[in-house]
Design goal:
InterPro entries: DUF6596, RNA_pol_sigma70_r2, RNA_pol_sigma_r2, RNA_pol_sigma_r3/r4-like. One of its GO terms (molecular function) is DNA-binding transcription factor activity. This protein has a two-stranded antiparallel ribbon. With 427 residues, the protein is mainly α. Among the domains are: 118 residues; 58 residues, no CATH class. It contains 21 helices and two strands. Helix 9 packs antiparallel against helix 10 and helix 16 packs antiparallel against helix 17.
């Protein structure tokens, strides 16, 4: 389940609004606190879900507590104790496992999670433990630490929802059965565990601004992912952790200019006055810290690309040659489909549209259902004066569900004069 999956469909409006906001803002911290305390991720999820249900029953009549997150934390801990002591758990697990920490018996009514250590990073490293299947580590972090529901996690990793849900359940059982310790690993263990942690934070940021999430969820998740990346960078002093934090700061800086009047604004057309100068400065500082610490990795190179684009706010122009060199270096390190499509676009801006189209032609088969492939192809065909641009753009529109992006592409399609979309769907 995800953070907002805990919410039943009906509740008193005021109580529901307060609870939604609390769950959205505090789910990851609350779950991490509970899981690190009891050592059982599934148990912590169940207890937190019970606390949310109790809030919906009691808050409408008793009023919203002064500290809603603290109230949920207190109730969930007490529910955890009940579950640990239940006859069902005593008969299914050794008696020693049913003993909760000695300090758990008394909890103040206004327990404040913000006054307690932030256990989210510990939980992320738990999810990256060698005992967990590598393919489910990042999805598990997305769901448990950042509250992304299983359907969105499945979509992000191109896996059926039922399949992903089964994998997540198995991974949580594995954490419990293998008695994985809830702690940040020693420095010698970090090289094995850090990459999936960074991927999960990056994935959360991407999902946070994806076409499938609602506006408030998108904003909350993207901000939380960026903050986690900065915390990781400050704690670990690792080059790629610094690169990821820089990347998310620099990317976030432009989000306020990304959509105007409900329509996507391409990067090159964005008003730089709408960019967040503080986030740009923070990102540049993190990127400088990462520079020179060995061979740049994927996140450092992506951050450097963001920096090259953000420089337009100072210089009034984009250094296309530098952007192309960075794209080439990035594809050498991480030859993803998205990276190769972006390289084609960058090549076209320096060497002409036909050079970019040559690179896209190689990607025709993997790009058949990939929206950026068709949007980029349409751009380059139009720049080359090729009438096939309209058909490619129509295909891109068909593959776009994000409303601002779709509106932008539809306007471009109309400006090109359009093409018979029925024929394009079979392309």
């Amino acid at each position: 389940m995800g953070a907002l999956d805990l919410m039943p469909p009906t509740a008193a409006p005021d109580a529901r609004t307060a609870l939604e906001g609390t769950v959205r803002a505090s789910y990851g911290r609350l779950l991490a606190l509970l899981a690190s305390w009891c050592g059982d991720l599934t148990l912590a999820e169940d207890a937190l879900a019970d606390a949310v249900e109790r809030a919906l029953r009691t808050w409408p009549s008793a009023g919203v507590p002064r500290n809603p997150a603290g109230w949920l934390h207190r109730v969930a801990r007490r529910r955890t104790l009940d579950l640990l002591r239940s006859a069902a758990r005593r008969t299914s697990r050794p008696l020693g496992d049913a003993v909760a920490p000695a300090s758990s018996g008394t909890l103040p009514d206004e327990t404040d999670p913000d006054a307690l250590p932030d256990r989210r990073l510990e939980l992320m490293f738990v999810c990256a433990h060698p005992a967990i299947d590598p393919g489910v580590r990042a999805p598990l972090m997305l769901q448990t630490v950042l509250g992304v529901d299983a359907s969105r996690v499945a979509a992000a990793f191109a896996v059926p929802t039922a399949t992903m849900a089964q994998r997540l359940v198995r991974a949580k059982r594995r954490i419990r059965d293998a008695r994985v310790p809830f702690r940040v690993p020693e420095r010698a263990e970090l090289p094995r565990r850090l990459p999936p942690v960074l991927e999960a934070v990056y994935g959360a940021y991407t999902v946070g601004w994806s076409r499938t999430a609602g506006p408030r969820v998108r904003e909350s998740l993207a901000v939380e992912a960026r903050e986690l990346a900065v915390v990781l960078a400050s704690l670990l002093d690792d080059a790629e952790a610094l690169g990821l934090a820089a990347l998310l700061c620099l990317s976030s800086a432009r989000l306020g200019a990304r959509v105007v009047d409900g329509v996507l604004v391409p990067l090159d057309e964005q008003d730089t006055r709408l960019w967040d100068a503080h986030l740009v400065e923070q990102g540049e500082g993190l990127l400088r810290l990462a520079h020179g610490r060995g061979t740049p990795g994927r996140f450092q190179l992506e951050a450097a690309l963001q920096s090259a684009h953000c420089a337009r706010a100072r210089t009034g122009r984009t250094d296309r040659g530098a952007v192309l060199r960075l794209h080439r270096a990035l594809v050498d390190v991480a030859p993803t489909l998205g990276g190769r499509v972006a390289l084609a676009a960058a090549t076209a801006r320096v060497e002409g549209p036909r050079s970019g189209l040559d690179l896209l032609d190689v990607l025709a088969e993997p790009g058949r259902a990939y929206q950026p492939y068709w949007a980029t192809r349409a751009d380059l065909l139009a720049a080359a004066g090729d009438d096939a641009a309209g058909a490619a753009l129509a295909r891109a529109v068909d593959l776009t569900t994000d409303v601002p992006s779709r509106r932008y592409l539809e306007r471009r399609h109309a400006a090109l004069g359009g093409a018979a979309r029925d024929g394009v769907r079979d392309a």
